[in-house]
Amino acid sequence: MAENTDLEELRRGTDLVKRGFARMQKGGVIMDVVDPEQARIAEEAGAVAVMALEAVPADIRKRGGVARMADPADVAEIVESVSIPVMGKSRIGHTKEAQILEAVGVDMIDESEVLTPADDAYHIDKREFTAPFVCGARNLGEALRRIDEGAAMIRTKGEAGTGDVNQAVHHQRTIKGAIRKLEGMSHEEREAFAREIEAPAELVHETAEMGRLPVVNFAAGGIATPADAALMMHHECDGIFVGSGIFGAENPPEMAEAIVEATNNWDDPETLAEISKNLGKSMKGDANVDLPEEEKLQGRGV
Amino acid sequence: MSLTAGVVAVQGDVEEHAAAIERAAAARDHEVTVREIRDSGIVPDCDLLAMPGGESTTISRLLHSEGIAPEIRDHVAAGKPLLATCAGLIVASSDAGDDRVDELDLVDVSVERNAFGRQKDSFEAPLEVAGLDKPYPAVFIRAPVIDVVGDADVLASWDDRPVAVRDGPVVGTSFHPELTADSRIHGLAFFDNEAAAVPWLEGRN
């Protein structure tokens, strides 16, 4: 049996360790929860992780006012209640909320446009943290700027709390479309494209060579049914965040389980049909076309 | 000869394992076709199997609901190789110490989930592994440790705790050999395991 492992060579919080964590979430569903009971329902249904929040985005929308990080005591309680990873949301640019969440022991921090941004100009310097971050993006420029700041995972912004998948589809198509365009470009065209989308050239080249984002790319924002989750997998997302769609539904445990199964069976219509039967009402939601511009969250933090 | 490899793909880092299998096979001049297993009916066609990292509760749940679990048991009973990493090892163990995981009992060890702590305690480090001449760059992510070893060989330990084992045709690791470009662990599990009954080992000297 081999011995003499060198404990001094141990390294934490490296890109490999942070991005590796995100990779372990692939093909999975991450669910918004507001208390330990919901967290246990999510875990029981097969969620790969839960996002601990004070209120789901649909309720944040309704309530208005300033939306902040959840009470760390509540987050800690959720961390204790399940064996799967727990994520928490900080405001955009709010380094201190992120540090508090890291201290409480969350496994990943979502620097999220769903909360009221704390900084108009800058995001958190995510490289300073041991905990990995996920950030939202509407297009390739936003995605690569966030990765440059240290994000280990990108998710579409979609339009959170609406139950309308329209904007998540739009953002995913925009990102994939830009990557396809990049693949056909010469070196100097890619350099010019990097300037145009205000992204670091190095990351633009890396993305072009890989034919995908250099980190895991999830869908988020408006996913409310098993069919919605399957649609986002069809659009080549690596996995799914579901916010208000589960605990805003008539029958949360069944909806949660169905979304997990649909994410695995996204390319099998007959199984999807079985999964989608008799789930009760999905969240009511608000159609994106009816939403006044000033109520949209996706423009926060570009 | 041409091989069929399967990667259990109900959840977790599947592409990374597929790429590592392809690299390990290419290094030995084997042709390999990798298939993703999200449904029953594919495992019986596979010469070798990898069970990836991910969330053990999710993987366990889907393996049973999709009817893949008994096929993996048959695969190992036939002596064909299986590499189970991190969550895969938890699911393959004989005791995961957690009733949310329905173990396959393919490796005679009990494991402790998240034994190194939460994600902020995850780490990478060079690891001495029996059968490899140089240390292996091991990545531990919310990793389990093996706390009781039954009828299995320990291949590596970290801080005196077993993190890689072999039980007949099955190799299990608490770290993630699929996350780095070094495919020696895949080579060890699939091509250099004398205990595995595989056609490509039979004819060799």
From TrEMBL, chain A:
Methyltransferase found in the keyword field: no
CDD domains, per the entry: pdxS (cd04727)
InterPro entries: Aldolase_TIM, PdxS/SNZ, PdxS/SNZ_N, RibuloseP-bd_barrel
Pathways per UniProt: Cofactor biosynthesis; pyridoxal 5'-phosphate biosynthesis
Domain PdxS/SNZ N-terminal stretches: 16-220
Keyword Aminoacyl-tRNA synthetase: no
Superkingdom of origin: Archaea
Chain positions recorded as D-glyceraldehyde 3-phosphate binding sites: 173
Keyword list, A-Z: Lyase, Pyridoxal phosphate, Schiff base
Entry EC number(s): 4.3.3.6
GO molecular function: pyridoxal 5'-phosphate synthase (glutamine hydrolysing) activity
Pfam families associated with the record: SOR_SNZ
Binding site for D-ribose 5-phosphate: 32, 161, 222, 243-244
Active site: 89
PROSITE patterns listed in its UniProt record: PDXS_SNZ_1 (PS01235), PDXS_SNZ_2 (PS51129)
Record's catalysed reaction(s): aldehydo-D-ribose 5-phosphate + D-glyceraldehyde 3-phosphate + L-glutamine = pyridoxal 5'-phosphate + L-glutamate + phosphate + 3 H2O + H(+)
Chain intervals for the UniProt region annotation (Disordered): 282-302
Broad enzyme group: lyase
Record-linked PANTHER family: PYRIDOXAL 5'-PHOSPHATE SYNTHASE SUBUNIT SNZ1-RELATED
Subunit annotation: In the presence of PdxT, forms a dodecamer of heterodimers.
Family per record: Belongs to the PdxS/SNZ family.
Its biological purpose: Catalyzes the formation of pyridoxal 5'-phosphate from ribose 5-phosphate (RBP), glyceraldehyde 3-phosphate (G3P) and ammonia. The ammonia is provided by the PdxT subunit. Can also use ribulose 5-phosphate and dihydroxyacetone phosphate as substrates, resulting from enzyme-catalyzed isomerization of RBP and G3P, respectively.
Protein name: Pyridoxal 5'-phosphate synthase subunit PdxS
Organism of this sequence: Natrinema altunense (strain JCM 12890 / CGMCC 1.3731 / AJ2)
From TrEMBL, chain B:
Biological role stated in the UniProt entry: Catalyzes the hydrolysis of glutamine to glutamate and ammonia as part of the biosynthesis of pyridoxal 5'-phosphate. The resulting ammonia molecule is channeled to the active site of PdxS.
Keywords linked to the UniProt accession: Glutamine amidotransferase, Hydrolase, Lyase, Pyridoxal phosphate, Transferase
Record SUPFAM superfamilies: Class I glutamine amidotransferase-like
GO BP annotation list: L-glutamine catabolic process; pyridoxal phosphate biosynthetic process; pyridoxine metabolic process
UniProt GO cellular component terms: cytosol; glutaminase complex
PROSITE patterns named in the record: PDXT_SNO_2
Protein's name in the database: Pyridoxal 5'-phosphate synthase subunit PdxT
GO molecular function annotation: glutaminase activity; pyridoxal 5'-phosphate synthase (glutamine hydrolysing) activity; transferase activity
Active-site residues, record numbering mapped to chain: 86 (nucleophile), 176 (charge relay system), 178 (charge relay system)
Record's catalysed reaction(s): aldehydo-D-ribose 5-phosphate + D-glyceraldehyde 3-phosphate + L-glutamine = pyridoxal 5'-phosphate + L-glutamate + phosphate + 3 H2O + H(+); L-glutamine + H2O = L-glutamate + NH4(+)
Gene3D superfamilies: 3.40.50.880
Subunit structure: In the presence of PdxS, forms a dodecamer of heterodimers. Only shows activity in the heterodimer.
Pathway in which the depicted protein is active: Cofactor biosynthesis; pyridoxal 5'-phosphate biosynthesis
Pfam family of the protein (one): SNO
Protein's organism: Natrinema altunense (strain JCM 12890 / CGMCC 1.3731 / AJ2)
Annotated EC: 4.3.3.6, 3.5.1.2
Family membership noted in the UniProt record: Belongs to the glutaminase PdxT/SNO family.
InterPro entries reported in the protein's UniProt record: Class_I_gatase-like, PdxT/SNO
Top-rank taxon: Archaea
Binding site for L-glutamine: 54-56, 113, 141-142
